Amino acid sequence: MSELIRVLLIEDDEDDYFLTADYLSQCREPRFDITWVTNSAEAVAAFRCKSFDICLLDYILGAENALDVLGIIKSKGINIPVVILTGQSDTKVDEMVMRAGASDYLTKSEIETPRFMRTMRYAMVRREIENERIERHKVEQQNKAKDKFLAHLGHELRTPLTSILGYTELLLDDSANERIMQELSIIHTNGKHLLSLLNDLLDMSRIMANKLELSPKDIYLSGFMTDVHSLMNLAAKDKGLQLSISCDTEVPEVIKADPTRLRQVLINLISNAVKFTDSGQISVTLDIRPHAGENGNELLRFKVRDSGIGMPPDKLEDIFHPFEQIEDVMRANHGGAGLGLAICRELVNKMGGEISVDSKFGEGSVFSFTVDPGDIADQPREMLNLAAPSSQTQTAMNLHVSGRVLIVDDLRELRRLTGHLVSQCHAQVAYAENGVKALEAVLMAEKEGKPFHLVLMDIHMPVMNGIDALKALRKHNCKTAVVAITAASRKGLRQSLLDEGFDDVIGKPIEKQALSQILDRYLIRTNSPEVGASQIHELITDNEEETDPVTITSERQTVSAPALKGSSAAEQKVLVIEDDEDAADLMQLLLSHQGHEVGIANNGRQALEALKHNHYDYALLDLTLPDYTGFELAAEIQKNTPSLKIVIVSGREPEPEKMSALNISHSLLKPVSKNDLHALFESEL
Question: What's the whole-model pTM score?
């Protein structure tokens, strides 16, 4: 079918209309669909009713001229190429209409010439190019807005995670909390899981925007693999699995790669192997692939083998696509955002290699990937030695230093947390809540002859941010070391902060080892503690007295948790049907504190069995189970136990029509609090 071009002809002379229409109608390729109007008002009405590819506009239209009509079209936001037609050529008129926004200018005598057709085509091509440019600009602006949003999101989520993970670690370190170690471990594990999901989302966004860059460094392979084994061995042991790392051939002593990203790929693959393996072992093997790289370099190959559930062959390619997960795995509630393997593939590609999988359903999987280790032709070769010493194995915070540290953060709990970590190394600690307070504290300390040796400065603060505070300090000739603390993770941020004048940069959540290295670098190491709680000086920056960081742990030990408000309703027997064991245990704990008798079923089969042998008044039913959907199980339960009152518990709003069909009137949205449960049993169900 030939191309159809829709033309709006604005012409008040009927003879000229027929002349133009007759010429265009004789064209076989392209074909033209002509709409004729005689003035600007009719033209605007036509634009409202129909879309056009090009407009032919007579220069003189009675009381109007082309400049008037062009102005009206432009004011209405109509974006269309306009070719001006006139009875005679005039250079001044030509210049005026082109400045007014016309695409071209022709005399009516040229209508039956090849130039007329070329002019129309060129006008439309130029408009297409302009539209593409506008669309490209819009996409670029959207990407910038998305990057800005993700950076803000990362900051906003990492900041509370700092408190969650940090304070949980403090409680876990305190032997007085032994009776609640299990609950604290659950909080810590889920907090780390939330952080890993956030990191995956941010990594994928950077990858999709082509903004993720590698930082190749020399990696001592034996020590590096020892670290990986140490990190993952505990997770494997927790499931009764054996993790081994081996190499049957000699490998280079040193390779050139990005250690952070290589470790990320290995940990992701080993974590998946642990997650999907219930018994047996997980093995990681290394070998060298001779001269397989594009640049002629040998490639280093890793294989991660497990004896887990495996995958069907037709699903193997899908798992490397973003947000793709195998349905059977999802139903088994192994969780995740479906980004881990997609990120692994992109990272491996960036490191000059490829990743693949070989799997048999029910028998296990083998993930293989290669990386370009750089030029290793002259590197000495050795057998992999996991007993090799690792620079990363130093015990975190096992440090005694002397010095005064100012901690600047607008969030009170983060000041306290960082202060506690610093005080564990026996340094003196002071606080400020923004850049202005920090400037005052530093200058006052210098005036009193007790200067600070180190300032840990948050970047994002009200009143005065960290960068402006640093500039103000340097204007006052303050030479104190200032280390930036930031939750942001955008590309090039570290270098930009160093360029601003910061002595170093540390990220949030603050890792104990990273903080220990900073303190060791800028303070004086001592052999024994020199500072006690009495030497801690705190800057009070609000009307509420802050807790001394040294006594946080002991205070938390002596403060009793408020008693849970009991339900005024009679004691009920409740069956919690939830496949997430942590969530089920928490629900049981909350309900038990409210005086109810609680049973747990982790899948539909267990629930039906429990209801067959026991009487329950209520069932709190999760919608996602490994063997049933929640509504399928609810229908089955109602057949056998019609008197049982069912409450849907879900991470999303359940469909009202499905609840109505099963006569279920109540639902709870996760996360469920003790107040939610109290209100549920207080109400008339």
Answer: 0.46
